[in-house]
Amino acid sequence: MKRSGPFRLCLAAIAMVIPAALIFIVLFLAQYAWQAIFYNGVRFVGTINWSLGNLYANPVVSRGYHVPIGADYGILAFIVGTLFSSFLAILFALPVAVGTAIFLAEAVPARLRPGLSMLVELVAVVPSVVFGLWGIYVLAPLISHDIGPGITAILGFIPFFNINNSTGSGFGLLTASIVLALMITPIIATTLYDALLQVPRELRESAVALGATRFEVVTKTMLPTVRVTLIGGVVLGLGRALGETMAVLMVSGGALNYLPGTIFTPISTMASFILSQLDSALQDPTNMAVKSLAEIALVLFVITLAVNAAARVLVRGATFVRNL
Amino acid sequence: MRSDFKLRRSTLLRAGAAALLVTGLGAGVAQAANVTLVETGSTLLYPLFNIWVPHFEKAHPGIRVTTQGTGSGTGIAEAISGVVQVGASDAYMSDPQIKQNPDILNIPLAISAQAINYNLPGLNNRHLKLSGPVLAGIYDGKIGKWNALAIEKLNPGLKLPDHKIIPVHRTDGSGDTFIFSQYLSFSTPSWNSSVGYGTTVSWPAVPGGLGAEGNPGMVEALKQNPYSIAYIGVSFHQQVKQAKLGKAMLLNKAGKFVLPTAKTISAAADQLVGKTPKDERISLVFAPGADSYPIINYEYAIVNAKQHNAATAKAVKALLTWASTKGNAPHFLKQVEFKALPPAVSKLSAAQIAKIH
Amino acid sequence: MSATFDTKGKRSALETRRRALSAAGWVLCGFAFLLIAVPLLDLVLTIAIKGASAFSIKLFTTSSNGVKGGLLAAIVGTAVLSLGALIFAVPIGVGAGMYLSEYGQNRLGSVIRFLSDTLTGVPSIVLGYFSYITLVIGLGWQFSALAGSITLAIMIVPYLARITELSLRRVPITMREAAYALGAKDRTVAFKIVLSAGLPGVITGALLALAISVGETAPLIQTAGWSNYLWTGKLTHEPIGYLTYVIWTFINQPYKSAHALAFAAALLVMLVVLAINIGVRIVLRRRI
Asked: Keyword set for this entry (chain C) (predicted)?
């Protein structure tokens, strides 16, 4: 067979468009954020004061760059908001996803399986802005009036879980985390479900022969064999949670410059902050604010890149496209 | 002459392209209007623009205006970048911005005011008395509860609840934030030195403080959160009334507590409009005078004097001229509790509108 | 005999405990399933009920003036943006998928695969920000259908490429070999044999990509803008409305009419997204 004809080259060129687009985006962001990276230094990720400075006074020269007086770009609060909400989301999603996957793969009669597993898959396709709408309309009031006081009644002696230490609006860390958890549970659950169905019959039969109950077979012999896939699914979900914008923006309360003191306190994440602050940043005649936003985009990009690369290494052949 | 010819050619080309497109798409698509203007920005001005536009379009067939309430920050930014033709803003542009973009005009269309609203169960029918320093204390976290001494002192006889205050601020770049933070800056030196004023300010960290998007978002946030307080443009007075929220009396420069009414807004305007410079960039906040309401401002159209083409320039001029004259009629402005421009300011605005080409 | 009986007695005590634990385990698993299924059902029901009550003929025949009215402009805009995205994305995505499946079993192929998956993982707001700076401002297109479509296309191309690759790979090797044996050229094999056999999979991919575009919001806010008016056919220099914008901004308006429109828009978006996803899954399962 010929190794390369004009047709193959042509297809290869088309295929190269995808990596080229990705590389162009990274290089562009890096080039655009260059001055901000030098101006901000490590303070960028190490301090929690994000201030555009006095936009109504003449810019001054600070650390070698023209910036508004008092301009300071520290995104630690948003990094904490992003990581904390994603971490809580994983914490909620993991047990639910494992239980759901076991339920679907082992407890449900084969006849019902396609319908019920489709139900779980459909959660993953709900657009994030619709999740946000539901979060505003249903979840936030529920947290403010029922779940929040409930948690306080049980764990209220720990200040971090006491709704009375916050303003109790229902918009904040917990609400954002629950919405994120809903979005990523199906990702983890379907990854695990697929893996459980692949476990060889012999393994299961030998465990049954040793006198294990069916549940013990699942938890003690099957789950360990799919452990790596499960971790991969979790990391995949983490990637989604870290970059989620709309749903988080709609229910997180839009905190600025403080760390969450309770799980009911408002937060901001890096992705939601980029969207909500672009217009403000464009007010800065020196452009340092917009460039600092580009730096946030770059940091977010690097984090999700690392997470997704990790997921791919863990789940062999993992793609974001499930083999339907 | 030459530029005239160029313009005509480009209009011709455009018309040709449009004709091609229309034929290409078939007769199903309605005949395109000649010029589409995009207005974006201030959510305070947005309700008025929505009232204006149908009347304006009726008087000027061939011009269509799309409106968006995105916040004054967006209005200024996108008028500068040329993404929109008309930016709406409650804030005038800063000196550095003007220096960088000398072609951008700040044209007042009306006079507006801002109310301090709150949701205090049981007390929303009473007008709480508040001052700049107390509001600064609430927004920088030094005053955390409604029954704090500083608030009780201003409101003797009121039974204030022992509950945390939820200060709500705008997350988008906002002219309301601009005039509110100006009130705090002009009345409270410590706020001026630590936070200052702007369309976006670095809000001091008040745990539990909420961010809201636009004036509509502020009303929603108040509705949903008892014990919250927010600054809201008067054009939302109907929504505020429907939601049964409270409205505060504010301490003015002369030491009197006043509500935003037609009389107090006019009184404040009378004090300062005479000082309006040619480019019309001036703050009307914290005016002297016993009757003056302290937070009033010009509602600006932010417009590039150099438009894309003659047709667009003509349409922009028509819109702004209409808005600052016919649009200033009481039956329009009354619906949003705005005040008409005084004749002297109308003249300055007309002179600026004439510069658009 | 008695010894056996004894051990059996002991075992049954242990076994009761184990059985109880197992039963509890199954109940917990069922509960976990409910934890994910109930919110979905609540979400669908809430949106269906609140959205359907806002449905009327006016909703589909008039456009919104900002707080009330209909959704015509937004519906048309969503259709234009999503189909526009497909026009850009399908040739590139299918071409790339074909390369990966037919000739991509090499180092270049795995690099493309890896970077393509990485692009899928890039938060959509980062893409929106990128397009705002480059297309809207940089090229001076302003908020426009073209800027919005291209941004959506960048998002969905990697999905399309990978779904195409997966479905073309399922076409049996023997079919290709038979064609090559008959003297067919690369191009003939790729299009006439492989692509026509794998076409249902490719169409599936395009439909799923369409569902993604219809539901996307964040990148469009910075690229397509928003317009109250029906799209006039201009590709650049004219903002365009879309349904997800209605959901996100109108729910923050203090008007009942605006809330109703937000839910109506959410219902329309959900109908399209769910119809595509459920349809695709049912058809695929029936074939397998």
From this structure: Cell membrane, Membrane, Phosphate transport, Transmembrane, Transmembrane helix, Transport
Closest CB to A283: pick one of B166, B199, B212. B199
B217 has a pLDDT exceeding 70: yes
Residue B172 in contact with partner chain A when CB distance is under 8 A: yes
C65 pLDDT tier (thresholds 50, 70, 90): low
At residue C10 the predicted structure's pLDDT band, cuts being 50, 70 and 90, is: low
**Does the beta-carbon distance from C46 to A137 stay under 8 Å?**
yes
Which amino acid, residue B271?
Answer: Q
User: Which of residues 147 through 166 in chain A touch B, CB cutoff 8 A?
Assistant: 166
**What is the per-residue pLDDT across A175-216, written as a single tens digit (0 to 9) for each?**
999 999 999 999 999 989 988 888 887 877 888 788 888 888
Q: Which residues pair with B304 in a beta bridge?
A: B104
Which residue from C minimizes the CA distance to A301?
Answer: C122
Indicate left, alpha or beta for B255 from its phi (over 0: left) and psi (-120 to 50: alpha). left
Say whether residue C87 is in contact with chain A using an 8 A CB cutoff: no
Instruction: Find, in chain C, the residue whose alpha carbon is nearest to that of B23.
Output: C233
pLDDT of res. B127: 94
Tokens, residue C146? 């073209």
Q: Which residues contact C159 (CB under 8 A, 6 or more apart)?
A: A320, A321, C93, C120, C205, C208, C209, C212
Q: Which of B68, B84, B85 to mutate to test the interface with C (most CBs of C within 10 A)?
A: B68
| Chain C residues within an 8 Å CB radius of B25 | 233
Q: For chain A, which domains are there? A: 76-281+301-323 (1.10.3720.10)
Write down the pTM of the prediction.
0.85
Q: Is C178 on the interface with A (CB under 8 A)?
A: no
Q: What is the pLDDT of residue A134?
A: 95
With an 8 Å Cβ cutoff, is A1 touching chain C? Answer: yes
Q: Which stretches of chain B are DSSP H helices? A: 2-25, 46-59, 72-81, 95-100, 132-139, 149-154, 175-187, 189-194, 214-224, 237-242, 262-272, 310-324, 330-336, 343-353
Cβ-based contacts of C274 with chain A (< 8 Å):
122, 125
Q: Is the ipTM of this complex over 0.85?
A: yes
Contacts of C66 (CB under 8 A, 6+ apart): B46, B50, B67, B69, C228
Rounded percentage of chain A residues whose pLDDT exceeds 70: 95
CB proximity under 8 Å: B 77-106 to C: 81-84
Contact assessment for residue C33 and residue A103, using Cβ atoms and an 8 Å cutoff: yes
Q: Does C179 touch chain A (CB under 8 A)?
A: no
CB-CB neighbors (< 8 A) of C133 in chain A: 28, 32, 294
pLDDT tops 50 at residue A1: no
Distance from CA of A324 to the nearest CA of C (A): 7
Q: Fill in the amino acid letter for B178.
A: F
Q: For the segment A234-249, what is each residue's pLDDT rounded down to a tens digit?
A: 988 998 999 999 999 9
Domains of chain B: 2-113+295-353 (3.40.190.10), 115-275 (3.40.190.10)
| Overall size of chain A counted in residues | 324
The answer, for C33 touching chain A at a CB cutoff of 8 Å, is: yes
Is the confidence at residue A318, as pLDDT, over 60?
A: no
Determine the distance in angstroms separating the CA of C278 from the nearest CA of chain A, rounded to an integer. Answer: 8
Q: Which of A41, A27, A39 is nearest to A286 (CA)?
A: A39
Higher pLDDT, A256 or B181: B181
One-character DSSP codes across A204-243: HHHHHHTT--HHHIIIIIIHHHTHHHHHHHHHHHHHHHHH
Q: What is the pLDDT of residues A27-49, one digit of tens each?
A: 999 999 999 999 998 889 988 88
C238 and B64 within 8 Å at the Cβ level: the answer is no
Tell me chain C's radius of gyration from C-alpha atoms: 26
User: Is residue C5 pLDDT above 50, yes or no?
Assistant: no
- Overall average pLDDT of the A48-67 stretch: 85
